Amino acid sequence: MRKRGPIALLTDFGTRDPFVGVMKGVILSIQPSCQMVDITHQIPPQDIQEAAFALRSARGYFPRGTIFLCVVDPGVGTTRRPIVVESGGQLFVAPDNGLLSLVEPIRKMARIENKQLFLRPVSRTFHGRDIFAPVAAHLARGIALGRVGPSIRRIRRLDLPTAIRKGGQVLGEVIRIDRFGNLITNLRPGDLPASSRQVFRVGRKTIRGISRSYEEGASGEPLAILGSEGFIEIAVRDGSAMNALRVRRGARVTAGSEEPKKK
Amino acid sequence: MRKRGPIALLTDFGTRDPFVGVMKGVILSIQPSCQMVDITHQIPPQDIQEAAFALRSARGYFPRGTIFLCVVDPGVGTTRRPIVVESGGQLFVAPDNGLLSLVEPIRKMARIENKQLFLRPVSRTFHGRDIFAPVAAHLARGIALGRVGPSIRRIRRLDLPTAIRKGGQVLGEVIRIDRFGNLITNLRPGDLPASSRQVFRVGRKTIRGISRSYEEGASGEPLAILGSEGFIEIAVRDGSAMNALRVRRGARVTAGSEEPKKK
Amino acid sequence: MRKRGPIALLTDFGTRDPFVGVMKGVILSIQPSCQMVDITHQIPPQDIQEAAFALRSARGYFPRGTIFLCVVDPGVGTTRRPIVVESGGQLFVAPDNGLLSLVEPIRKMARIENKQLFLRPVSRTFHGRDIFAPVAAHLARGIALGRVGPSIRRIRRLDLPTAIRKGGQVLGEVIRIDRFGNLITNLRPGDLPASSRQVFRVGRKTIRGISRSYEEGASGEPLAILGSEGFIEIAVRDGSAMNALRVRRGARVTAGSEEPKKK
């Protein structure tokens, strides 16, 4: 058995209740030297889409052998399946509810069924503690993926918003808003109309061109910038684009190009 | 000296100020390889009862040898005693103010008096840094419990709310509300009236029966479920029971049984 | 190469977005066994002064060899320099924007220029991930400070508020407010007028004398106390001085002495 690790945790449990600490206690009871890293526990309650995006943002920066322990699980206690997925030398332990929609390419998938790995009795409401954490810890100890349960052929994938071309424009949307109030869109540079005069429309604002730093903007005015995750972001220098533009997740973002004005 | 660990931290310090980081720095200065886990630092300021419940929820999931470093300490700088308690192969370092009320059975208790273990000078306002963290770190290094100070015979225990039988009913209360707005009561299944038709009353709502998963409820309607800590919880599918029922901690929860209706 | 560590993280990234987890993933990809401690990630967005004060509060409690990875970086993507500073056997990795103003005495300073240490491509908006975290991880592996880039002679320092003597009084201010609503001033005991009858004025309140514990105060009344960081703090027993006195960071605090009354 070759040890794996670290275990990277992603949940909607928050940090006020002892849920996350309890999962870590379970992990250390099985694999005492296990290294653990929090990705975030502030996923809005039951927001599977936000969790899927956060996981996509984070996973590529973790080493091979990392086990992602992902628990956003509104269906806990029902028939939704607990699963493990392997991709790029990393493992993902999660409920099969779309949370792993953006994990690709997948090399192996298994349904978690081996009750010997669980905490007993298994509660009806906290499979993070009773199933997902102990399975992740056993995987960190090095058990083969086949030990958790039988192979499966397909996992559930969410229908996530993608950018759409329409005439000379591209219609995207705000898929996430970060702590600074930056609006992360689903527009990649390659999606944009080929033009040296790109124009973005968000809320009631029009933004011309793509800036190279936050400080290129005038104070309080929105700008477009290539974000660290490879998507166009709308930001406001020294402020919050969310507040300045009064938009929420899901807001339409239109990218077009400006015709050179005639003389 | 046999090393102990991990150190599990439980405080009301929040994560905005550097208090928790400072305690961890102190620990690593004494025991460089020490593993540390946060249970929570979001205990409401000075809320000893909430800390006692969180500790009860968490401790059973941590390995033997764990040192619980618990600091909710409104009496810092006064004559309240700093103590260490041993229970089930785990150690608990805390002020003697009721925080350890639910740690049982206790095998040993000591008053912390050995100033050689402290950071000096000891401040008047941050014994977490100057007394509790260094003592926990020295215990992690393996010093005997007797090294921290003399044995004591009794610790302070809070008068915590327990369920009361009254006629055919059981009167309980909401002792904690979690991040999801679930209401954790102090009712255990064994406390409830023997009946196949249990009825719970909370706020202005009546709930019939105990559900097996959150998804058994109609959207927006409250349900009762056996929570992961062994207590009856009141929840709302895809929502917050706290908001739906407009109740707070301490709210009365009555459990009874419904008479079969006559034909 | 002598290994260093732990890495202590101080940012304004919050814990909702995956930014901090991503930086930790980057660190573990370079230095798999690295120990990491969070000082705080709740520095108000872009508040360099607050970060400088938090770092001063924390650093003295961390062991020699600690690498402080500090990212509050409104100028990311502009010409502000990334730097590493050595002080007291500890290393500080940060943007050169004043964040390290209170790190003293400094023994060595270097500008970070060695692109071989960076993640590539370097984004315009997240140097925490692409420059600061990998440089900190390489330093933890033990590379010499000279490897990150050329020596520099000076770092940027903020003009931070200091206490001023004026007549028999000392004029200070509230430099930080902690989670409990305690007001941390920039007054040290040595700054105060020599007197056995010290008087503090904050907001509309007058406070006489320095208390020895929070519990010396009457409930709801403000008191002055020597805080754990060596500064005078204004606190309210079992409450929040910020709320009781309705003051904010920057509020004036005047220290004087009371004349003995004539008979």
Helical content band of chain A: 10-25%
Q: Care to count the β-strands of chain A?
A: 15
Structural class of chain A: alpha+beta
CATH superfamily of the largest domain in chain A: S-adenosyl-l-methionine hydroxide adenosyltransferase, N-terminal
Radius of gyration of chain A: 21 Å
Return the string of H and E elements of chain A. Answer: EHEHEEEEHEEEEEEEEHE
Q: Would you identify the CATH architecture of the largest domain in chain A? A: 3-Layer(aba) Sandwich
Total number of helices of chain A? 4
| Residue fraction in strands of chain A | 25-35%
Query: End-to-end span of chain A in angstroms?
Result: 73 Å
Chain oligomer state: homotrimer
The gross shape of chain A turns out to be elongated
Number of domains of chain A: 2
What does the main sheet of chain A amount to?
9 strands, mixed
Uncertain runs of chain A with pLDDT below 50, 5 residues or more? Answer: none
List the helices and strands and how they pair.
Three copies of one chain form a homotrimer.
Chain A: E1 7-11, H1 19-30, E2 36-40, H2 48-59, E3 67-71, E4 82-87, E5 90-95, E6 108-111, H3 127-141, E7 164-166, E8 169-177, E9 183-185, E10 198-202, E11 205-208, E12 210-211, E13 222-226, E14 232-236, H4 241-245, E15 252-257
Parallel strand pairs in A: 1-2, 1-3, 3-5, 12-13
Antiparallel strand pairs in A: 4-5, 4-6, 7-8, 8-9, 8-15, 9-14, 10-11, 10-15, 13-14
